[in-house]
């Protein structure tokens, strides 16, 4: 009995820590408007070589759903806009839809969400918007009748244009023309614990404002930031600004607690000559830095400490899509399974999936006479932006992921020091390579500490007591984004181990 109690306590404790192998917040859209896609079975194998944990389908292709059985990959399936009239009018149609598209595959295929319609509110058919909520309700009732209520969520996907105001983020609100229709949908999501799914695209934001400073802001690159004068927050990237604008819009209608899911976001790798923004370098920068940002678990300024579930668009290019060339160029992978460009999704290269990078001390050849570290006075927002950017440039940021040699102390300044220096050591070592929008400087004091060794400057080794003291000054406290301080979890672990030891001792003595 005592052993069982101890084991249960240990499982409860360990459940509070993110698995080094799991990144449940990273998903991908699997579009099928193409005639050259590999078989679903091959795609399932490809996904298992990556840290992608979720896949969104725009329909409910049985071959794909079946191919993903047993992989543990979460699956989002969709009811098409054309299905809404029947789903809304006839509960039996909804039951039949569930019987056809869910019951033959679940739970072997891990279906987690059904999206009823896609960007329905933008439809030119006014009846479709009126049919949205009844269709969602009937699908929910069909799930409940099949004893799947709560196990599989029901939602719908919205374009960012449902917002009438998005800047500054704290003033985000839904366009007045959509508010009446959204009220019922939001109440449904709140009642069922389902997410509000939305498609933020910094790519399109840049196309509407093609200035260099806008590009850096959209690509998570070092920039001056954009202040929200209502909150005093300076936003360092467009993704956070857009997501927080959605959060504010939900809050303005009384649904602050409804979770947000990013159903689509991405960047085109090529386009027509008259298109602004598409390029391999920009696509790699956006998607790579977005993934690094999600892995940091910093969240957004208004929703800190948790990464929003994000589905990147898209798994493959779709060669039959209409419109400008960029519409056919969002793929992360080529149809021969090779990467279109490397954004760190391969398990062997992912910071949180690598068997080595997250647990080993960083190493590197001594190539310079100094180390790159943050300047005094740099804000957490600026430093987090530098972390996202640097980790998106191909450096190994595994050591500052949970379990890594440099993860503790778990604060932005410490992690930024590591990321800045790793980028600097891999660069030509010009002074401009340690600039980070004037938030970094080169120091002659070795910032290494404990088992965390910083390459460069004449030899790594144990840290001198100089520059890192301001980062490693409280191993027992963690600075939170709002300035509060909370105890580190290691005290909880020690307490749990003591309790387990006492229970085992009593058990043994009683035998």
What would you say this structure looks like, in words?
An 8-stranded parallel barrel has the order 1-2-3-4-5-8-11-14, surrounded by 4 helices. The protein has helices spanning 2-14, 40-47, 62-67, 84-89, 91-101, 126-145, 176-192, 202-208, 212-218, 238-252, 280-295, 380-391, 412-426, 490-509, and strands spanning 26-30, 54-57, 74-79, 111-118, 153-159, 163-165, 173-174, 196-199, 226-228, 233-235, 260-265, 299-300, 303-304, 310-312, 371-374, 440-443, 477-479, 485-487. The protein has 14 helices and 18 strands. The longest helix has 20 residues, at 126-145.
Short note summarizing the structure:
This protein folds into three domains: 19-328, TIM Barrel (Alpha-Beta Barrel); 371-475, no CATH class; 484-511. With 511 residues, it is α/β, with parallel strands linked by helices. Helix content is 34%, strand content 14%.
Task: Provide keyphrases for this structure.
eight-stranded parallel beta barrel, TIM Barrel, 3 domains, single chain, globular, alpha/beta, two-stranded antiparallel ribbon, 511 residues, 14 helices, 34% helix, 18 strands
